[in-house]
Design a protein that fits this description.
single chain, about 325 residues, mainly alpha, three-stranded parallel β-sheet, two-stranded parallel sheet, 13 helices, 5 strands, about 55% helix, globular, binds adenosine-5'-tetraphosphate
Length: about 325
């Protein structure tokens, strides 16, 4: 039996943080053996907000190396860079022409990010979800593992595929595969260290709000020491009045590998002074092997280049076949 296909990606904007890791990449690693996987570094998405051209290429390589360092296995997964595959941009244009504008104007991420950018908001930011739909649909993905924040974009991808199939597919032969989101409960929404009601995010101006995968032990210690807590003694999960407490306990649970029940029992009588060193040690221990592996990969650029070259070759093949199917369904004249 052929394996189902998985596709997912992260933008090479700034540093990969624990939200990206626990909400996305760690889940990719855990499920990868069951699937045929395509993991891309979505650099075309990274320019939907103002970006630094000097940093983009370096950030892209860093992200690819981190995928490997986190445990992506090339036996069952391909790693590639989105902009190396021309079909992403081309399918985006084709899908733009069948996507109603008001579907995009409703997107929460657009509204939130547009608010921060005022007059300078780009057409690209509005179009971000259509590019994401193209990323997914090109690979006929069955499953898309993401964090909770991407759920609305996934629903839009499904709507676009269904609309395309209704308009241009034959009933028994849909042109585009309609994908399903894969959102794990644990870690689906890691919150900021400075505000337990906001998600941990690369674009938060405060470095103290997130733990990055490449943070050295001293930085991790400092961030946890300064993170927001509350004055209540005794720590417990799931109290809506204590978002920071729930977030920090969840981080401890996921980083230490203990069960929720074990953590609840261990921490029920603790104060923050006792808990913070535990969380610090768990975070440092969880990130140390990733950081060591990352360094070894970055020291071997030829290897990293070859991974991205092979990944692009495989991605190109699948993506071009889908693009040809879509163009044929839309009635374009074939290339002579
Ligand atoms: N806080 C989070 N908790 C759980 N999952 C998260 N993800 C992001 N933040 C959290 C998941 O990480 C994957 C890659 O995200 P992305 O790079 O495409 O950008 P994003 O979703 O916009 O995440 P960021 O890091 O917060 O960036 P900015 O600040 O630019 O918005 C996705 O699967 C996402 O769900």
């Amino acid at each position: 039996m052929t394996k189902q296909r998985v596709l997912s990606g992260v933008q090479p904007t700034g540093n990969l943080h624990l939200g990206n890791y626990l909400g996305a990449i760690r889940n990719w690693v855990e499920i990868q053996q069951e699937y045929d996987n395509f993991f891309c570094v979505v650099d075309l998405h990274a320019i939907t907000v103002p970006h630094d051209p000097k940093a983009l290429a370096d950030n892209t390589l860093t992200m690819a190396a981190l995928y490997l360092a986190c445990g992506i296995d090339l036996e069952c997964s391909n790693i590639f860079v989105q902009s190396h595959i021309k079909a992403h941009s081309e399918l985006t244009w084709l899908l733009n022409c069948i996507t109603p504008l008001n579907w995009l104007e409703r997107m929460i991420q657009f509204k939130e990010k547009a608010l921060k950018q005022g007059e300078n908001v780009s057409v690209g930011l509005l179009d971000y979800p259509v590019l994401m739909a193209a990323d997914i649909l090109l690979y006929n993905a069955d499953k898309v593992p993401v964090g909770e924040d991407q759920k609305q974009h996934l629903e839009l991808t499904r709507d676009i595929a269904i609309r395309f199939n209704d308009k241009f597919g034959k009933k028994k032969e849909p042109v585009l595969k309609v994908p399903d989101p894969l959102i794990r409960q644990q870690g689906a929404r890691v919150m900021s260290l400075t505000d337990g009601t906001k998600k941990m995010s690369k674009s938060d101006p405060s470095e103290l709000s997130r733990i990055n995968l490449l943070d050295p032990p001293d930085a991790i210690k400092k961030k946890i020491k300064k993170c927001k807590t509350d004055p209540v003694k005794g720590l417990a999960f799931d109290d809506p009045e204590r978002p920071e407490c729930n977030n920090l306990l969840t981080l401890y649970q996921l980083l230490s590998g203990k069960t929720k029940e074990e953590v609840a029992t261990e921490c029920q009588d603790m104060g923050w002074g006792q808990f913070k060193p535990l969380l610090t040690d768990a975070a440092i221990a969880a990130l140390e092997p990733i950081q060591n592996k990352y360094q070894a990969i970055m020291d071997n650029q030829d290897y990293l280049d070859s991974v991205l070259r092979d990944g692009a070759a495989k991605a190109d093949e699948v993506a071009n076949a889908t693009l040809a199917r879509v163009k044929n369904a839309l009635g374009f004249l074939p290339h002579p």
